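Q: Structure tokens for this one, please.
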Amino acid sequence: MRVERPLKIVIAEDGVLLREGLSGLLARFGHTVAASVGDADALVAAVAEHLPDIIVTDVRMPPDFSEEGLRAAVALRTANPHLAILVLSQYIEQAYASELLDSGDGTGIGYLLKDRIGDVEEFFDALHTVAMGGTIVDPEVVRRLLRRRRDPLERLSPREREVLALMAEGRSNTAIARALVISEAAVGKHIGNILSKLDLPPDEDDHRRVLAVVTYLRG
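A: Here is the predicted structure, written as tokens:
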């Protein structure tokens, strides 16, 4: 197993057994675990205190067990674009993963799924690669992000694009029906398909129409 140089590391993981096990493993191979913490606030404080070479963090941590760890990682990279970060998680939080990978100049970032790391050597290879400024992203994370970043308007049929364009002009369903020479029922069906294909959150119809128009204008 290659050990290019000892690293000073901060670990953020809410699972005590995994956190302690990882700390012991890193120490056994000559690295210094400057801090081992269980929540995002403690992670931010530990980085400020110890100025590590790299942080290893989970995504979901207390108090809400949503994406606190990843949000903290994004904030830390915003403050220090050269801070190396290795995310090690069971989950793919697409929005913050994308933001993290876009942070800084895109170097010194890793996002690996825990259940896809085959052995200890693979983990240490990833750790050193990221610490040295490399980028390693689990193939499943890449697939999810590519699906997310694909132009959402590609999902729409030509007729649905026409309807959306008229919605962007502020036309009512009646006006859209008249312009396209179709029934209002058909317009309603097309709008329903548009909202569904654009993966808009459930909400009031007027709000969803606005979101659809915003998506169209961005495209």
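A few notes: The CA atoms of residues 168 and 214 lie 8 Å apart. The first helix runs from residue 16 to 28.
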